[in-house]
Design brief:
With 734 residues, the chain is mainly α. It has helices at 2-28, 31-53, 59-84, 89-108, 115-120, 133-155, 172-190, 194-208, 211-215, 223-237, 248-261, 265-293, 296-301, 319-333, 335-338, 344-347, 357-369, 371-388, 395-409, 412-424, 437-444, 456-483, 490-508, 522-525, 527-551, 555-576, 593-606, 617-627, 646-656, 660-664, 666-673, 697-707, 729-733, and strands at 611-614, 632-633, 636-637, 685-691, 710-714, 719-725. The chain is globular, with a radius of gyration of 27 Å.
């Protein structure tokens, strides 16, 4: 009878959830209740899908797998619907209503392991841990200092333009971070009280990734503003034209959360990626390490490595960042399948091949988010399918297919860029003759970095910034070497090599001259974190092996290791965010309130007349945030998009020669686009915005005043704007 109650309990919970959800969706529209319902939905559906995808895992490991699959399904369903039709609120309602019974159905039909199966698996059901007083005290103190660190970020919130958030965050934040990380590292390295240490690690990772969101309430970067404005437009209109070929996976997920749970767009977009990373990454890493090491204390110790991974793409929600997270989770969740660690019941079943269906869902979702991470995820999936043939009688076929896929995958991204260039006519080309030995060596950035700036703390952080990837690589090779007899890390090592070849080709053979100078190595650089992510399972094993030795070492060795680990985690926190210090000149200035005010003042002074604006990317981002995609001339947005657009080149020309003649040359760009006619009237004015922090801004402002038809400043000169009027509309079109 008791067993029958527990079997029906999810159904009762689902009914209560659906009733509360319907009340909120159609009557209350409360974000607070929506947030609570979101948590209940993840718990309900995630746990059921986790039982199907990882039935013999501990419940704490099944839930992250289930949430990953659940959100992947939401992205795939939403993206398919959007491409085929549009995404009004009803789509989110249907997806949510279907997700509950489908999850219950899959969970009810899942295999329930018996006692022998649980004991045969390396991660057998753990006995409950009785936390000792010391562990409780360390956890409480660590949480206290994490709260102080979080408060330090929040207190530093600014709407002024700055080059790095570390210029406004109190230096005491680093002391708080070090103490919190030291106590966390002590708990993790001890391997005890995992019921406290693992949730504490999740909380620490959340604070680790929250600085940018807290310090920059308006936002930072450029891409987040474009994606947020796109989602806002789709929320209002149901679609956007033209429909984007990429990024729809993230859009579908955000639209689902906004429509389905009545959450504000800004709240969802600002916090989505940091929240998902902190919720899923630590449990996923623990599960992978526990499978590989077959020793839970060492697996717990290995979690310190997570904070040393290249996590910069997780601090702000972008499709690249979300796809990177999905790729890392894919690599971690695939460990039991691809390293030959499938549960005993799967090996004894009629089909002895590893289960790949769940991984396929995650890979397809990654491809729907961003192609630079999605294509490697699909290649890795194909490698896994070929590798799985080694579990059957078709070993030879599997080996041949495996290496053919690896060969094709080594050029998949350069080929994708060339195909896209041919399709769009941007002029990107592929030239193997440009690959020279010297260029290859320079693109590898090999060599250790040692530089003494006579600032020990900053020198230490810079040392980690330049050598962290090499350390990760060495630890991963150690892990792969130690695991070679018990597991098969080949898919991960080969995938890292495949991405390495893609990186070299993108760095040398692919022509990105259509981009502005500082973005031409951007695409190749995005592969470096992906290489690290595919090495992460082996690196976790290596870290667990090293720290396992430390656990049985003298107390001084253990104390030194804990303090060194805390120092590395603090250094990693510093270098994860954009910097402006003795070693690095920061160029990524955040969007300020002055940028926003300038955009509104330009719109007001235009008085309904069509116009163009020549400005830097922060002002353009502020325009997208404040006014959306309101004005286009053909396919030309009326503010510069800093990806090599002609209008941005005109802005750069104005910085060199700020004259009326240079400003009015921007009209030629619109005339060329609208030669066959535009739906909007041609512009009659050009506004030129100069930020105070821009290089030689004093010279630019003084020279621009001489020929401008009008000018004004915003926020005491934070932004100075000049207006240049065309003689007549007829003269422009000649």
């Amino acid at each position: 009878m008791l067993g029958g109650f527990f079997r029906i309990h999810p159904t009762i919970f689902a009914a209560l959830f659906l009733a509360a959800w319907a009340w909120n969706a159609f009557a209350l529209h409360s974000p607070v209740l929506g947030g609570a319902l979101l948590g209940a939905w993840l718990l309900l559906c995630g746990s059921q899908l986790g039982r199907r995808a990882a039935p013999v895992e501990h419940a704490s490991l099944r839930l992250p797998v289930g949430i990953w699959l659940l959100l992947s399904g939401v992205m795939i369903a939403g993206a398919a619907t959007y491409y085929a039709w549009q995404y009004p609120p009803g789509v989110a309602y249907v997806v949510l209503l279907l997700s509950v019974p489908v999850s219950l159905l899959l969970g009810r039909g899942a295999h329930r392991p018996g006692l022998l199966e649980r004991w045969s698996h390396a991660l057998k059901e753990a006995k409950s841990h009785h936390a000792v007083h010391a562990a409780l005290g360390a956890t409480g103190i660590s949480l206290f200092f994490l709260a102080l660190l979080f408060r330090s970020f929040a207190d530093a919130a600014t709407t002024d333009p700055i080059r790095s958030l570390w210029l406004v965050v109190s230096p005491s934040a680093f002391l708080c971070a070090f103490v919190a990380f030291a106590l966390l590292a002590a708990l993790l390295v001890s391997g005890r009280s995992r019921a406290l240490a693992i949730p504490l690690a999740c909380a620490a990772l959340f604070v680790f990734l929250s600085a940018s969101v807290l310090v920059f309430p308006i936002g930072s970067g450029f891409d987040p503003f474009i994606h947020r404005a796109t989602v806002s437009h789709v929320v209002e209109q149901g679609s956007i034209s033209p429909k984007p070929l990429y990024y729809v996976g993230q859009y579908a997920l955000e639209l689902f959360l906004v429509h389905g749970f009545s959450l504000p767009i800004d709240l969802v977009d600002f916090w989505l990626l940091p929240a998902l990373a902190s919720l899923l990454l630590i449990p996923a890493a623990y599960g992978a390490a526990a499978h590989l090491l077959r020793d839970r204390p060492r697996a717990t110790a290995a979690l310190t490595l997570v904070f040393l991974l290249p996590l910069s793409s997780f601090i702000t929600t972008t499709p690249q960042g979300l796809a990177n997270l999905w790729t890392l989770l894919f690599a971690l969740f695939a460990v039991p399948t691809l390293m030959g660690l499938e549960p005993a019941f799967a090996e004894a079943s009629a089909d002895r091949r590893p289960r790949m269906a769940a991984l396929t869902v995650g890979a397809v979702a990654t491809a729907a988010i961003h192609p630079i991470a999605g294509l490697p995820a699909l290649v890795f999936l194909a490698l896994g399918l070929a590798h799985s043939l080694s579990f059957t009688s078709h070993k030879t076929v599997g080996r041949v297919a495996f290496w053919l896929i690896a060969l094709a995958g080594s050029i998949v991204l350069p080929a994708a860029f060339v195909v896209n260039a041919i399709r769009s006519g941007t002029g990107s080309g592929f030239d193997l003759s440009s690959i020279t030995p010297s260029l290859l060596l320079s693109s590898l950035h090999l060599g250790l970095f040692f530089q003494n700036g006579f600032r020990p703390l900053l020198d230490f952080a810079e040392l980690w910034a330049h050598n962290g990837f090499l350390v990760l690589l060495l630890v991963a090779l150690l892990g792969a070497w130690k695991l070679r007899r018990d597991t098969t890390p080949k898919p991960y090592l080969v995938m890292a090599g495949v991405l390495g070849v893609n990186y070299l080709l993108l760095s040398t053979a692919v022509d990105f001259s259509f981009l502005i100078d500082y973005e031409r190595q951007n695409y190749a650089a995005r592969l470096v974190p992906l290489i690290a992510f595919f090495l992460t399972p082996c690196a976790l094993a290596g870290a667990g092996i090293i720290l396992g030795r430390v656990r049985v070492s003298p107390v001084l060795v253990r104390a030194f290791t804990v303090l060194l680990t805390a120092a590395l985690m603090t250094a990693a926190l510093y270098v994860t965010y954009p910097r402006h210090d003795a070693f690095v000149v920061g160029h990524g200035i955040n969007v300020s309130q002055g940028d926003v005010n300038a955009v509104y003042e330009i719109e007001r002074r235009a008085n309904g007349r069509p116009y163009l604006v020549l400005a830097n990317q922060s002002v353009s981002a502020a325009a997208i945030r404040s006014l959306g995609f309101t004005h286009y001339y053909g396919n030309q947005f009326y503010y510069p998009i800093p990806t090599g657009s002609d209008l941005y080149q005109a802005f750069l020309a104005m910085n060199d020669t700020p004259t009326k003649e240079t400003a009015l040359s921007a009209f030629d760009i619109v005339n060329d686009i609208c030669v066959s006619g535009c739906m909007r009237e041609l512009p009659t004015s050009v506004f030129f915005a100069v930020n105070r922090y821009w290089w030689q801004s004093d010279r630019i402002v003084e020279q621009a005043k001489a020929t401008a038809d009008d000018w004004f400043s915003v926020d005491d000169g934070t932004v100075t704007v000049f207006r240049y009027d065309a003689p007549t509309p007829e003269a422009i079109s000649q």
